[in-house]
Design brief:
mainly beta; eight-stranded antiparallel sheet; 1 helix
């Protein structure tokens, strides 16, 4: 199920192949609030009591995929797996950076990567959503403070496409950074900034007031819309990081290199 089809009907598709990535050491400083390398536990690294919880059959595996990285997290859509961090005020900000290193084992019609889209119970609980499908490629949405899912297409949402094709069994490091006060934004894949195109919605980056008053969880590998759990993914996650600072494009390259 495509979460965005509750709001939009988008069919445009252009794609190209991205380079293969390897896991590197992320930048860690005072602004790093969650950092996890999944080294035989969900709760290692800097977590500030904001630990990942594995749901259903999501579990740590010994991979050996990457030098100096012996473990990763395995998520399977057949068992509706995902991981989550419970809502916390540290995430309710309009300046942040999420970084995640992952690979798809196989591709479904819709493949959720990471989000705070948790609208099954509270229909306004949405801040951002990043996913991949063969029609839109790698894409994401941002949700305005006036967003209300109960309004259907009247909801306030901005939808962006990068036209990038992702492939299976390829390691990607994705950085998603936003700073509302200076209208800065970047989406980087393997240290390279993605070109973004405003595809559909009610506003664009220049006038967004990002939704920050949420009770939504941070979700990896799934999302929850009005119809319940949807858009599951078959993926392996090797690293996750959240910072309450806007990370620049050069910093994304540092994280990759």
């Amino acid at each position: 199920k495509n979460i965005f089809k509750e709001l939009l009907n988008i069919t445009e598709s252009v794609s190209y192949t991205e380079q293969v990535s390897n896991l590197r050491n992320y930048i860690i400083d005072a602004n790093t609030k969650v950092n996890n390398t999944f080294q035989n536990t969900l709760n290692n690294g800097i977590a500030n009591n904001n630990h990942f919880v594995a749901i259903n059959s999501a579990h740590i595996i010994s991979t050996g995929y990457i030098t100096d990285d012996n473990y990763s997290l395995d998520i399977a859509s057949v068992t509706n797996d995902y991981i989550q961090i419970a809502n916390n005020s540290i995430f309710n900000v309009n300046e942040f950076t999420y970084t995640i290193t992952f690979r798809f084992k196989s591709l479904n019609a819709e493949n959720t990567i990471i989000n705070r889209f948790d609208t099954e119970t509270i229909h306004t609980d949405a801040q951002f959503y990043i996913a991949y499908n063969s029609t839109n490629g790698l894409y994401f949405g941002l949700y305005d403070d006036t967003y209300s899912n109960t309004g259907g297409f009247f909801s306030k949402i901005a939808f962006y496409n990068t036209f990038i094709t992702l492939t299976t069994n390829t390691e990607y490091t994705l950085q998603f950074a936003y700073k509302e006060s200076t209208r800065e934004f970047n989406l980087c894949l393997n240290g390279i900034e993605c070109g973004i195109t405003f595809s559909a919605g009610d506003f664009n980056l220049s006038n967004i007031t990002l939704k920050t008053a949420l009770t939504a969880r941070v979700l990896v590998g799934t999302a929850f819309g009005l119809g319940g759990q949807a858009s599951d993914s078959n993926m392996i996650v090797s690293r996750f990081d959240f910072s309450n600072k806007y990370r620049t494009v050069p910093e994304a390259l540092i994280n990759y290199n």
